[in-house]
Here is the input.
Amino acid sequence: MAQLTPTERRRFNQEPIEQVDYHLDLEYTVDAHRLNRLDVITPRGAGSPAPVYIYFHGGGWTSGDKSTLTKYCASQAANGFVVVNANYRMATRFHMRHMLEDAAAVVEWVANEIAAYGGDPDRIVVGGDSAGGQIAALLAAARDNRELADHYRLAPHQSGRLRGVVLHCSAVDFSVIFERGFILSLAFVRMLLPKRARRLPLAQAARYLSPIEWLSTSFPPVFVTTSEQDPFYRANLNFIARLRSRGVPVDALVYDRSARNTRHTWQQNYRYPESQEVYRRLQAFVSRVTETPVGVVPPEAFAHPRG
Here is the structure.
């Protein structure tokens, strides 16, 4: 497991939430790598099976750990969700196929095991921040796209139970990385590719990394949060526009530059009022998409004056 400093742990996880139960470091694959672990955080006293929210941390595909997201995930569990907080294999030793394989394995584990923790395996929402959001969105896109699923060797059933996607400051449009002066270099794109794909022109190979390239009318409803202080701000605006052009229900919370506490992945820090607004909107989104029969959530249900 990635090593975090005590300062990092304290920053995100002060004042632990006590009205939830923590089931930590559960293996989700056979012959698991040390990073193939997840936490399940459950609300106490829940009645009927609860919606399940699966979360993948960010960290530029090379770093990060689920432990920094414990407070964030517990905040959602305290409002009635069963939350799965997952680690996954990362670059540079591994590449995107391994990350997608792990994400699909988490969904499969949830489908088979989450009922024992009070979760409903037929009401799953996936989400993530930054690189974790890219993984969640790409997994959702592969759900009904044979070319993308085959590229990552994913079985169709491995992502077929998704009811919604939550994206915080996520890397969902790789075209911005090719623009002059972008914060990430093209070396990040190469790093995510298997060796065989590195023989292709880089822009062509990057298509398989970029969720925006794989959106269809059957993509699940989406909740996007970003701000003008986020380096992936335009990528997220492009993604929102593409979703809406496909008729996909989307709720967007976009802060302008004047919002003080909205730097990249601010949503992790529960102290910010902007984060608390994200949590309120997220809880409403998850409730809405998991309580409505699949395929009948109209786009107008997601209209919001601040989105």
